[in-house]
Amino acid sequence: MIDKRYLKQSRITFLLAYPVMLSQLGQILVGVSDSVMVGQLGTAPLAGVSLGNSIFILFLTFGIGISFGITPLVAKADGERDNKKIIEVLKHGFMVNGVTGLLLFILLYLTSFIFPFLNQPEKVVILAKPYFMVISFSIIPFMIFQVFRQFAEGLSLTKQAMIITVSGNVLNVFLNYLLIFGKLGFPAYGLLGAGIATLISRIYMALAMILFVGYGRFFKPYWVHFSKKGIDKRIIRNILNIGLPSGMQFIFEVGAFSLAAIMIGWLGASSLAAHQIAINLAAITYMMATGLAAATTIRVGNQLGRKDYESMRLVGFTGFYMSAIFMGLNALILIAGRHFFPSLYIGEHEVIGIASSLLIIAAIFQLSDGIQVVGLGALRGMADVRIPTLITLVAYWILALPLGYILGFSLNMGALGIWIGLLAGLTIAAVLLYIRFDRLSQNRLVAS
C-alpha cells in the first residue's frame, strides 16, 4: 500500500514542479525547434547545429548552475520569513549573473577559433561557426532572465516563468520559420537564421521576466527593503559557494555529452546528425526532470529553513520516486517511437537507423538520469554541493568517457558504444547521489 504521506507530498511537489518542468521544456524546445527546422535543409546543416549546440550548451548550463545558487538561499530565507535577506540575494544575484554572462560570452567567442581543430567535417564547421557566434551572444540576456526566474522560483512562484518561457519558444519557432526559410519577405539565412531567432527570443524573455519581478504586486513587500548601498561579499560568496559547484556539476555531465558529440563527429556527419536527434529527444525528458529537481530544491530548502528535518527527508525522497515514475514512462515512449521520432527531423534512412539505435540506450538511461538530477537538486537544497560535484566528475569523466571511447573505437561499436559509456556514468552517479542524500538527511534528523 502506498504511504499517504508520499501521496500528499507528491501533490504539493507536483503543483510547484509542473510549471518549472514546462518552463524547462520550453528552454530545450528552442534547441529542438532549431534542429527540426534546420534538419529540413539536410545532414550538414543539422550536424552544424549539433556541433554548435554541443559546445554552447556546456557554457549555458554552467551559467544555469551559477544562477542555481540564488534559489536555495531565497527558499531558505523565505522559510525564515526574512524579506530583507530575500531582496539582498536578488541584488547580489543580479551582479553575479551579469558578470558571469559577460565572461561566458567572451569565452564562447574565443572558443569559436578552435572549431577548425576539432577534426570535424569541413562543411559542418563552415556552417556551424556563424550560428555559434550569434547564439553565444544570447547567453547575456539568458543569464539576466535566470536571475529573476530563480528568484521567483525560490519564492515558489513558478507559473509566470513558465508562461514567459513558452511564449519565448513560440516566438523562436515563428522567427525560425521566417529567417531559416526566408518567408514573408525575409531573407533565407538558413542555419544562421536559427541563431538570430534564438537571440531575439532570449532578449524578449529577459525583458518580460524583469517586468514581472520589478512591477508585480506580489514582490512589493520585498522591494521595500531594497538598498543601492554597499556590496555584501558574504552574500556573493554564499551564492557562489552553491552556484560554482552546481555549474561544475553541469559541466561534468553536459561536458561529457559534448565531448561524446565531438568523438561521434569523428565517425562522420551521419553519425553526428543521428547523435543530435537522439540527444535532442533525451534532453526533452532530462530538462523536464530538472524542473522536478528544482521543485525539490525549493521544498528541501524551505524545510531546512524551518529546521523540520523529517519533512525535509520526506520531500527529498518524494522527488526521487516521482522522477523514477516520470522517467520510466518516458523510456517506454522513446522505445515505442524510436523509428518515428527521428523521421520528424530528417528523411535520410542512414541517419534515422543510427538514431533509432541510440534511442534504445537513451530509454534505458532515463531512470538513472532522472534520479541523479533530482539527487543533485535535493542536495543543493541542503547547500551540499562539493561532494556531489566530485561524484559527477568521477562518474562522467573517469568512468563514462573512457569506457565510451573503448567501446566506440577500440571495440568498433561506433556511436552506440559511446552512448553505452554515458549510460554507465549516469547510473553510477544516480546510485551515489541517492545514498548521499539518504545519509546526510538522516544525520541532520538524528542530530536534531
Output the helix-strand order: HHHHHHHHHHHHHHHHH
Strand content: under 5%
Structural class: mainly alpha
Count all strands and give the number.
0
Helix content: over 70%
What general form does the structure show?
globular
Uncertain regions spanning at least 5 consecutive residues: none
Largest sheet: none
How many domains in all? 1
| Tally of DSSP helical segments | 17
N- and C-termini, Cα separation:
30 Å
The whole-number mean of residue pLDDT values reads: 88
Radius of gyration: 21 Å
What does this 3D model show about the protein?
- By secondary structure, the protein is an all-alpha fold.
- It has one domain (4-447).
- Helices cover 85% and strands 0% of the residues.
- It has helices at residues 4-39, 43-67, 70-79, 83-111, 122-137, 139-154, 159-181, 191-215, 220-223, 233-265, 269-306, 309-336, 340-345, 349-364, 366-381, 386-410, 414-447.
- The longest helix has 38 residues, at 269-306.
- The radius of gyration is 21 Å and the shape is globular.
- The two termini are 30 Å apart.
- The mean pLDDT is 88.
